[in-house]
């Protein structure tokens, strides 16, 4: 055994676990992680809680202004997704993105963030603030055939022109 406990007997099981993960998340490549081997239900629990959070409005956005240092003004903000669990500390994305990716919920999360962020953009613009919104998406989101239609539909829902939205690709 070396470091991670690999031996002739454990490698086939780890490969099988990674294959199972690839099949259940509909991906062609899965990098092995010890998290795949966890059988205590914790990963499943986070995925189920996240599903519930998407349905129950626990996903929210905080906004970070992007300042023009010459004029000291902000005409653009970036939507920062957070999971606001009732009675819990607000959770930053690095704590729930892995579960969203594993469970195939990432695009649903992206759709929710687009809706929240563009609704806020509409409210600010109606108050006379010419704000543009920046929303982070994954490379996988970018290749999703539903992305363009989702963006168009959400912009139309809030009666916003396309030039108010900037999509930034994250890793």
Structure description:
This protein has 171 residues and is of the alpha/beta class. 45% of the residues lie in helices and 20% in strands. It contains 7 helices and 4 strands, in the order αααββααβααβ. Strands 1-2-3-4 form a 4-stranded mixed β-sheet. Helix 3 packs across helix 4 (97-103) and helix 5 packs parallel to helix 7. The longest helix has 21 residues, at 106-126.
Q: Enumerate the strands of the largest sheet in spatial order, edge to edge or round the barrel.
A: 1-2-3-4
Determine the oligomeric state from the structure.
Answer: single chain
Q: Biggest sheet: strands, sense, closure? A: 4 strands, mixed
Query: Shape, please?
Result: elongated
Structural class: alpha/beta
How many E-type strands?
Answer: 4
**Count of helical stretches:** 7
Q: In angstroms, what separates the terminal alpha carbons?
A: 33 Å
Range of helix content: 40-55%
Strand share of the residues?
15-25%
The low-confidence parts are: none
**Rg, Å, rounded:** 19 Å
N to C succession of SSEs: HHHEEHHEHHE
Mean pLDDT: 85
């Amino acid at each position: 055994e070396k470091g991670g406990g690999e031996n002739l007997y454990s490698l086939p099981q780890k490969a099988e676990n990674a294959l199972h993960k690839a099949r259940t998340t509909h991906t062609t490549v899965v990098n092995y992680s010890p998290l795949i081997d966890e059988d205590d239900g914790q990963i499943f629990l986070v995925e189920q809680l996240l599903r519930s959070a998407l349905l129950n409005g626990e996903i929210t956005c905080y906004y970070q202004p992007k300042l023009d240092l010459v004029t000291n003004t902000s005409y653009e903000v970036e939507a920062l997704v957070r999971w606001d669990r009732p009675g819990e500390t607000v959770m930053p994305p690095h704590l729930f993105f892995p579960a969203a990716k594993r469970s195939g919920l990432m695009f649903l999360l992206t759709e929710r963030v687009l809706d929240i962020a563009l609704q806020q953009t509409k409210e600010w613009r109606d108050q006379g603030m010419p704000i543009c919104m920046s929303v982070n998406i994954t490379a996988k989101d970018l290749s999703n055939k539903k992305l363009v239609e989702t963006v168009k539909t959400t912009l139309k829902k809030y009666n916003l022109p396309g030039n108010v939205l900037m999509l930034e690709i994250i890793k």
